Amino acid sequence: MASFVDQVVIHVRGGSGGAGVASFKRQKGKPRGKPIGGSGGSGGSVIVAADSSVSTLLRYARKPHWKAESGTHGEGDLRHGRVGEDLVLPVPLGTLVRDPDGTLLADLVEPGQQIRIATGGRAGRGNAALVSRSRKAPSFAEQGEYGEEASVVLELKLIADAALVGYPNAGKSTLISRVSEAKPKIADYPFTTLTPNLGVVAFDEYEFVMADIPGLVEGAAEGRGLGHEFLRHVERARVLVILLDPTTLQTDSVQQQYEVLVAELERHSPELAGRRRVVALSKADTLDDHTEYLQWAGEKEIELYPISGITGSGVNALLYAIGSEIEGHLREAPERAGFILHRPLPEAFTVSRIGEEWVVSGKAAERAVNLDDLTVAQAADFAAGRLARLGVDEALANAGAEAGDDVRIGDIVFTYDPKDEDEPE
Q1: In this predicted structure, what is the pLDDT of residue 186?
Q2: pLDDT, tens digit, 9 for 90 and up, residues 166-223
Q3: From 197, 249, 345, 384, which residue has the greatest number of CB atoms within 10 Å?
């Protein structure tokens, strides 16, 4: 039987970009010929997308490493490389995407909502694409870039209109199996439900999603029992349906059960304290008289619904109450939209001193020297011009670099040689 997984860490990598190529078409009277080197194809990105057909994160617990397709290299005769396909990772509706440090990147609640978590590497240009007025026949090409790598936490919070909350074995599974097509495990011992169950309830003019949340015990918000693992699934529910069990299966009285359950919800999230609630007295078919419980509820100004999931007694009245509370919530609160964090672009480059070297870090700087052969004078001049336009030379000078110092950009080390301002271009 498949396990229910609601939190995983995945490690992803975008596809690498293909390299461009330096190639020439030989022509009479032109020693080098016409540049005809094709460009590579860019790498595919890794995208997490909400999919209504997916209900668990189990596949990512089993396989935490994912990589998008890489682009292919360019070839001569202007043949460009193929672009790598994006890798789309489907997740259930209600999935949160976080950085390992806890920063929320996305809250995917609608089908098709998505976030790119690792961008594919940029393709390298062939020499045909590097032709300019001052560079008629470039003898070099660009390398492709590696795709981004990232680790993210996927956390599932079920999207339900109503959540059943109660002690272990309080009758939640029996109720949801009666009012929906859900088929949870049912037995007379605690913690029968080890995973949340979802069921669609269609009753008269009402239609809503009900979740059967594993039973809570006192201290669940601090980690006792099984319930604390699933309290997060209550957070999205519009209405909380509290089931109280009057039978001897519970050591706490009905009154104590209510106080404990409300306290646990408040400790987990203060916002839950104000959530709409419907309170039901479960297993009413086992009682000869409900007066004691109705009197207690009246004193607490609680409308109590005695029900039996076995016989169906009182269930219709409970469903009407739940449907009415859901409608009230929708009138008062707008539909929750998804959330995608758009982070600012990182700096083009940074300069730091590490040991005896100056280190220039940043994608823009690394891209400037990402050529296939920097030993070619034309390629070296091209890279130097790129770095100067980025402001790397000026930044090194401001940081205190002197002529003859070693400067590292990625895997490349070169000697810093500031250009004399009086020296002609």
Answers
A1: 40
A2: 888 888 888 888 887 645 444 343 434 445 677 778 878 888 888 887 766 555 444 4
A3: 197
The answer on pLDDT for 135 being more than 80 is yes
Half-sphere exposure of 278 (CA within 13 A, CB side): 27
pLDDT at residue 151 is higher than 90: yes
Average pLDDT over residues 307-327: 92
Domain 162-332 belongs in CATH node 2.130.10.10: no
For 7-156, CATH gives: 2.70.210.12
Closest by CA position to 352, among listed 362, 363, 344, 343: 362
Q: Which CATH superfamily is domain 350-415 in?
A: GTP-binding protein OBG, C-terminal domain (3.30.300.350)
Residue 374 sits at the vertex; the CA angle it makes with 368 and 380, to the nearest 5 degrees, is 65
Task: Evaluate if residue 32 carries a pLDDT over 60.
Answer: yes
How would you list the strands of the sheet with 87-91, edge to edge? 87-91, 46-50, 114-118
% the chain with pLDDT above 70: 86
